[in-house]
Design a protein that fits this description.
Oligomer: single chain
Number of strands: 8
CATH class of the largest domain: Alpha Beta
Largest sheet: 8 strands, mixed
CATH superfamily of the largest domain: Spore Coat Polysaccharide Biosynthesis Protein SpsA, Chain A
Number of helices: 12
Strand order of the largest sheet: 3-2-1-4-7-6-8-5
Shape: globular
Helix content: 40-55%
Radius of gyration: 19 Å
């Protein structure tokens, strides 16, 4: 039996998969001790065909109709019997010691869910989005790596985490309703809530590093923000005790963003009309590689507006 299995859901990201698999081939853990499962979720771009031709890693390729990342991850987990499951998004590039660091963390804390570090990959297009995301990743790493820090369920992000199979199976895996049909968000922190509620340890392994190649447009990000807000509402309805923690985690952190949230709730139609040109401007600025706190502040304001649209 393999010691660890890497499970990757993907949708129309053929170019990214080749880089991820090349990074896996360079892992310090011997090839005989791990395997990878790639789940092509409604792919029509030849991802499965390309992946099946790559022989550098022990890889199983599965295909399914567009069903969402949670369903894809559950299917990938079911296709392996490894005692540790490492979930990576298809835009991640794990450093050579990534698998080794996860296995060491599980040896120290059996049964745990292990969160890894997710810095922005230097190949990511330059923009205010990647600059802001990079600072967020650095702050997250500093917070979770601090002595005595204990991750919470809102820190659980499926872009890069591992979990003991026994713990994963005990709670029934991911709830597929959260990403049904390809929507974004919520399945990870909802899993974290259920695991933490059962006493499963949540730990951080800062030496387990997978860099994210972030190339999302602002329009695509705006749709994800809306999906994420809807997912949070669903999670709060399923687990009312989580609602206050979610509200605090998602509260706007600037005066202007808080004002935007209040304006959206008071005058939703007017706020949406004003937000439309702002979204177009921010999308254009990201595509052109613009950086600076002005754009990042505008991003935070629009984010607060979009989240406030979902009640």
């Amino acid at each position: 039996m393999k010691a660890i299995a890497v499970v990757v859901p993907t949708h129309e990201r053929r170019g990214r998969i080749e880089g991820l698999l090349a990074a896996l081939a360079a892992q310090t853990v011997p090839l005989a001790d791990w395997e990878a499962v790639l789940v092509c979720d409604g792919c029509t771009d030849g991802t499965a065909e390309i992946a099946r031709r790559l022989r550098e890693v022990p890889l199983t390729v599965l295909e399914q109709p567009r069903s969402g990342a949670a369903t894809a991850r559950n299917r990938g987990a079911a296709a392996t019997g490894a005692p540790v499951l490492l979930f990576l998004d298809d835009d991640m590039v794990p450093r050579p010691e990534c698998l080794e660091a996860h296995l060491a963390a599980h040896a120290r804390t059996p049964g745990a869910l292990v969160l890894g570090h997710m810095p922005v990959h230097p190949d990511s297009p330059r923009s205010y989005l990647t600059a802001g995301l990079s600072r967020w990743a650095d702050r997250r790493h500093a917070r979770l790596a601090a002595p005595g820090a204990v991750p919470g369920f809102t820190d659980v992000l499926t872009g890069h985490l591992s979990i003991a199979r026994a713990s994963f199976d005990a709670v029934g895996g991911f709830d597929p309703r959260f990403t049904e049909g390809g929507t974004f968000g919520g399945e990870d922190i909802e899993l974290g809530w259920r695991l933490a509620s059962r006493g499963v340890p949540l730990v951080y392994a800062g030496s387990a590093v997978a860099e994210q190649i972030y190339d999302k447009t602002f329009r695509a990000l705006a749709l994800d923000i809306l999906d994420g807000a809807r997912a949070d509402a669903r999670l709060a309805a399923l687990h009312p005790a989580a609602a206050d923690v979610l509200a605090r985690a998602n509260a706007p952190d600037s005066l202007l963003a808080r004002a935007a949230r209040g304006a959206t709730r008071a005058a939703p139609r007017l706020s949406s009309a004003l937000a439309a040109p702002a979204i177009a401007l921010l999308d254009r600025a990201a595509r052109r590689g613009r950086t600076g706190r002005v754009f990042e502040s505008a991003h935070a304001i629009v984010r607060a507006h979009l989240r406030a649209k979902v009640r």
